[in-house]
Amino acid sequence: xxxxLSVKLYDKIFEKIKQNEQVLLLLNKKGYSKHLICKKCGxxxxxxxxxxxxxxxxxxxxxxxSYCGEIYKFFKCSECxxxxxxxxxxGTEKAVEILRELFGDTVIKLDTDSxxxxxxxxxxxxxxxxxxxxxxxxxxxxxxGFNFPEVTLVGVLNxxxxLSLPDFRANExxxxxxxxxxxxxxxxxxxxxxxxxxxxxxxxxxQLLNSDSEKFYMEELSRRKEHDYPPFMRMVRIIxxxxxxxxxxxxxxxxxxxxxxxxxxxxxxxxxxxxxxxxIKNRYRYSLIIKTPNVSTIQVLGRIAxxxxxxxxxxxxxxxxxxxxxxxx
Length: 329
Hints:
Blueprint: H1 7-18, E1 22-26, E2 35-38, E3 55-57, E4 62-64, E5 71-72, E6 85-88, H2 92-103, E7 107-110, H3 118-129, E8 135-138, E9 151-156, H4 159-163, H5 170-182, E10 193-196, H6 204-207, H7 213-226, E11 234-242, H8 245-262, E12 268-280, E13 283-292, H9 295-312, E14 318-323
Pfam families: Helicase_C, PriA_C, Zn_ribbon_PriA
Protein name: Primosomal protein N
GO molecular function, one term: DNA binding
């Protein structure tokens, strides 16, 4: 239904509303739509400062970059110059619009856009708790430790987005979020149900949701060991960023060569390559990942990277050494 709800989930929500029970819907994307796409040539509207698609907000009619925060009031295609766009994908703002068309004004939104203060958050929570609304749609904020006695259904709408990230922790993060949000349903007398919408139901993270958490983590550890990921290997991510793309690339390639000359056979490198988000705040970013079982190797190779960078750097070039990185974009 509008590419937001499966028929099964729609029917279940309708059933819960008829019984005057409540529903939580997790959609971990703010705004109205994920992308704006040019009707004429199909180009996705991107931030001028970052290589990232802009999120569209219908309320206010603007697009915003989620990395640098730049707001765009007037849209023009960078390829053909047209200013007519299609919105693509769902954010919480569009989800609320669709849900209100389907179920009436019994829908409320909880995300960092709607929660502008602690007082505003309490007001939203109190309205939902009191039964003024039957459906709350929101980002992972709704997975926090809220206790709503009448919530008997949790729907997860877009978990595939999290699982598709280039991050070895994606399965773990998805599992934790799913368990956390599932715990909001049926916390009191009434039994709860959880619906997860996915195009990849065969993935281990879904197959293991009904098992105990120990089984999931044993499977996850086995996968990480097979692919030399932490905790079996330590990781370091080196990022070189510069306002000039060619300078950043050359310096990173030189540092990578020096590290390859110094590392042992048990140490592995991935890259150098453009970072998944190649440009942030007008700085081009090249990445090199080091995997090693030895802490001492991290120190030695980190020193090699820093020493060579000090010799090679130009202009406002920057080096970042991230040990055991949590962010891979």
